[in-house]
C-alpha cells in the first residue's frame, strides 16, 4: 500500500502518484470511480465488466441457495 500526499489544483485536479499508478497498474485514459465516503474520497479503477466483478458477492449470505432455484421459488410464489 502506498501513502502519498497530493494537492488539489486550481482546476480541481489531482495527480495520482507514480507508486500508486504502478501498484494498481493504471493506464492513461483509464476510468476511475470516485466515491465520497463520509469525510473520505475513494478512487477505484472502473471494472471492465461490472457483472463479472459482482458475481458471487455476498454468496455467504445464502450458502445453500443458488440463483436459479431462488428465482424459480420466487416465481412460483407469485403463481400461488
UniProtKB/TrEMBL annotation:
One of its GO terms (molecular function) is DNA binding. Keywords: DNA-binding. It comes from the Bacteria. Residues 3-48 form the SpoVT-AbrB domain. It holds the Pfam family MazE_antitoxin. NCBIfam families: lp_hng_hel_AbrB. This is AbrB family transcriptional regulator.
Amino acid at each position: 500500500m502506498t501513502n502519498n500526499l497530493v494537492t488539489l489544483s486550481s482546476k480541481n485536479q489531482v495527480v495520482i502518484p507514480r507508486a500508486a499508478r504502478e501498484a494498481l497498474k493504471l493506464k492513461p485514459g483509464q476510468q476511475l470511480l470516485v466515491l465520497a465516503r463520509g469525510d473520505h474520497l475513494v478512487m477505484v479503477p472502473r471494472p471492465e465488466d461490472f457483472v463479472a466483478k459482482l458475481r458471487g458477492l455476498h454468496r455467504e449470505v445464502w450458502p445453500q441457495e443458488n440463483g436459479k432455484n431462488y428465482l424459480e421459488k420466487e416465481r412460483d410464489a407469485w403463481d400461488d
